[in-house]
Design brief:
The complex is a heterodimer.
Chain A lengths: L11 E5 L2 E4 H23 L8 H21 L2 H24 L9 E6 L2 E6 L8 H23 L13 H42 L5 H31 L8
Antiparallel strand pairs in A: 1-2, 3-4
Helix pairs in contact in A: 1-3, 2-3, 3-6, 4-5, 4-6, 5-6
Chain B lengths: L1 H37 L4 H31 L1
The chains are: A mainly alpha, B mainly alpha.
Chain lengths: 253, 74
């Protein structure tokens, strides 16, 4: 392994007090700041009257299509108003993080560090979602919020899903449901991490083999995968939110 | 010696792990195309559900990938 630089975990680039700041945290922060600035700009330029600017029309189109997607799945305006902010945040944050990793310079600009006598390359930036910590954190947020929505919609009867001692079969199913929630965290986290990291490895290997022309279609592929994975994460979260707020009674045949 | 065995293990893990999801995704896409052919008006709905189903099938391949990566790098 000479010039090919692939690291499965994020590297530390700085220390803030006792806290190690890794390059993926740094990139996530940059993306978050960019998103906040974008939101504030859109808000400042909003016009209620007259012809909206092209910029406003584009932003409205993005938000509207996300809203309609949410409405299609939940089927009620009330639930949509409840779920939409989080779902849209998931989508936009993951999408921008995925795409940020494709920018030239991200993962290429860095410094050399002597680690255990070997000089190692450490990039300043790394796509936030190409770090397992970020994706597992997002997955945990999604699963915990699912429980919250379930509890707030169904009250304590939501817990019957996990603790149901009406007969031994239901008690066992409760345990399975509990394991399912843990598996959800794993599958959410690993799916996103695997896709984005695999994309980075693919691009690195292709660029390593043939530096010109050949990697270009793969960049197109990665742009597409970025959208699909952001959509999949948001949609699956939405479906699980929706399932949690619908009573479990209908499932007994 | 150890590196060679590792390389074989990585290749096998990814290659064997990709068979199932490959068949699954192919079937999902095939049936979705069939459904769109029968009812073109429902294209957008079928597409969304197709992509969701594919994500589930693909997750299995991703597990294989993660195992392969762990064997390779850890």
């Amino acid at each position: 392994m000479s010039a090919l630089h692939i690291s499965i975990s994020a590297e530390t680039i700085a220390h803030v007090g006792p806290l190690a700041v890794s390059n993926s945290i740094f990139t996530s922060l940059v993306v978050s700041v960019l998103l906040v600035i974008l939101a504030l700009t859109v808000h400042a330029k909003l016009k209620a009257k007259g012809k909206p600017s092209r910029f406003q029309a584009m932003m409205e189109m993005i938000i509207e299509s996300l809203y309609n997607l949410t409405l299609d799945i939940t089927g009620s305006r009330q639930k949509t108003a409840l779920f939409f902010p989080l779902i849209a945040t998931f989508f936009l944050f993951i999408l921008f993080n995925n795409w940020f990793g494709l920018l030239p310079g991200v993962g290429a600009i860095g410094f050399r560090e002597i680690k255990e006598g070997v000089s190692e390359f450490v990039p300043y930036m790394r796509a936030g979602t190409a770090d397992l910590n970020t994706t597992i954190a997002l997955a945990l947020v999604s699963v915990v919020v699912t429980q919250y929505f379930g509890l707030s919609a169904l009250g304590l009867s939501y817990l019957k899903k996990y603790f149901n001692f009406s007969n031994p079969m239901n008690a066992f199913v409760g345990i399975l449901e509990f394991i399912l929630e843990l598996a959800k965290v794993m599958s959410f986290g690993f799916r996103l991490f695997g896709n984005v990291f695999a994309g980075e490895v693919l691009l690195a290997v292709m660029t390593f083999l043939v530096p010109v022309i050949i990697p270009m279609p793969f960049y197109g592929l990665e742009l597409f995968v970025g959208v699909i994975q952001a959509l999949v994460f948001a949609m699956l979260s939405l479906v699980f939110f929706n399932l949690a707020t619908v009573g479990h009674g209908g499932e007994e045949h | 010696m150890d590196e060679g065995l590792k390389a074989i293990a990585v290749g096998l893990a990814m290659g064997l792990g990709a068979i199932g999801p490959g068949i699954g995704i192919g079937m999902i896409a095939g049936h979705a195309m069939e459904a769109i052919g029968r009812n073109p008006e429902a294209t957008s709905k079928i597409q969304t559900n197709m992509i969701l189903g594919m994500a589930f099938a693909e997750a299995v391949a991703i597990y294989a990938l993660v195992v392969a990566l762990i064997i390779k790098f850890v």
